[in-house]
């Protein structure tokens, strides 16, 4: 945010600090019920660190654990009050607190087109803004030359049955796959001894995340099957890192990228064949990767552009 509006005096209230300071059982309870000591700690931290004088704008980022009384306090302080979430608000990640305070916001920003109709039943259409997911220009960029890339596909994210099926299909097709994220341990044990599979561990974030994406030839921008998802942050982060994006065909992904800018697929067997084809043709692979990155850089899909768009809207 500071990069987007350098002349503004931005302040940050980091709710992660009081959250992670509580016991794991209370964090789990907060995730599942929005109740317990972790929720109390978050709200106390916010209330204790609010500015004394009114401010031009307050941005609430995924404030699903903020009590209604906390939001009302923010409302009194802020000339403009914004709510932003890159996650679902009604299909998953529901919050009774948010549902009770949504009408207090001047603008609600969502990345989930499938929830627009639900939002519009709760607030006027002019107070809702649908945007894409975003990437960080200072973090998501190529870390190596194209010639130094590994001839593999990379998948960073939570292990789900559909994603296990995808990786297994690629391995059966002779494609090397590197995975990282929560829940992959059992899958890795089942495929122990398969030299095509490499496991990078559970926690892959920040610089290491971008390095793994950059080093691979193809990045798997798979979507969750827990709910209807039409694109994700990896849809942008992968091509921003100079790696070919392999993504399911959805109304949103085909609108964001052309056929010469991403590797689209409908089935995992089709994906396996398409990856095998481009891995055998380095020139085609490089052309696809460069076109995808150029597409991302040409669009206002980075964090700073998002902040500018939202602040301009409420001004």
Characterise this structure.
This protein has two domains: 115 residues, no CATH class; 153 residues, Rossmann fold, CATH 3.40.50. Helices cover 41% and strands 16% of the residues. It is built from 14 helices and ten strands. The strands form two sheets. A six-stranded parallel β-sheet has the order 7-6-5-8-9-10, sandwiched between helices. Strands 1-2-3-4 form a four-stranded parallel β-sheet. It is globular. The two termini are 16 Å apart. The relative contact order is 0.11.
Count of structural domains: 2
* Residue windows where pLDDT falls under 50 for at least 5 positions: none
CATH superfamily caption of the largest domain: Glycogen Phosphorylase B
Topology order in helix (H) and strand (E) letters: HHHEHEHEHEEHEHEHEHEHEHHH
Q: State the CATH topology of the largest domain.
A: Rossmann fold
Q: Specify the number of helices.
A: 14
Class from helix and strand fractions: alpha/beta
Average of per-residue pLDDT values: 94
Strand segment count: 10
Q: What is the name of the CATH class of the largest domain?
A: Alpha Beta
Strand percentage, roughly?
Answer: 15-25%
In spatial order, strands of the major sheet run 7-6-5-8-9-10
Instruction: Tell me the helix content.
Output: 40-55%
Distance between the termini: 16 Å
Report the sheet with the most strands, covering strand number, pairing sense and barrel closure: 6 strands, parallel
Overall 3D geometry? Answer: globular
The radius of gyration is 21 Å
């Amino acid at each position: 945010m500071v990069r987007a509006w350098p002349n503004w005096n931005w302040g940050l209230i980091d709710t992660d600090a009081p959250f992670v300071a509580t016991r794991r059982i209370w964090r789990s309870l907060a995730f599942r019920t929005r109740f317990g000591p972790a929720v109390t700690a978050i709200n106390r931290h916010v209330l204790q660190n609010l500015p004394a004088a009114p401010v031009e704008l307050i941005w609430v980022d995924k404030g699903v654990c903020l009590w209604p009384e906390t939001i009302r306090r923010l409302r009194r302080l802020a000339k403009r009050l914004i709510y932003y979430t890159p996650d679902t608000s009604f299909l998953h990640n529901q919050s009774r607190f948010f549902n009770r305070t949504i009408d207090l916001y001047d603008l609600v920003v969502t990345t989930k087109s499938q929830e627009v109709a639900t939002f519009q039943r709760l607030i006027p259409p002019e107070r809702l803004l649908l945007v894409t997911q975003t990437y960080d220009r200072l973090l998501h960029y190529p870390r190596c030359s194209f010639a130094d890339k590994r001839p593999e596909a990379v998948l960073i994210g939570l292990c789900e049955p559909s994603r296990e099926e995808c990786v297994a299909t690629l391995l059966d097709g002779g494609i090397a796959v590197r995975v990282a994220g929560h829940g992959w341990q059992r899958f890795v044990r089942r495929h122990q001894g398969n030299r095509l599979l490499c496991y990078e561990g559970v926690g892959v974030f920040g610089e290491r995340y971008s390095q793994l994406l950059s080093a691979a030839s193809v990045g798997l921008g798979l979507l969750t099957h827990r709910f209807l998802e039409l694109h994700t942050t990896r849809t942008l982060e992968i091509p921003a890192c100079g790696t070919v994006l392999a993504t399911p065909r959805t109304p949103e992904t085909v609108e964001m990228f052309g056929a010469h800018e991403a590797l689209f697929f409908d089935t995992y067997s089709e994906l396996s064949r398409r990856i095998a084809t481009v891995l055998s043709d380095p020139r085609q692979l490089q052309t696809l990767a460069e076109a995808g990155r150029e597409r991302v850089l040409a669009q206002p899909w980075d964090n700073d552009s998002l902040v500018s768009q939202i602040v301009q809207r409420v001004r």
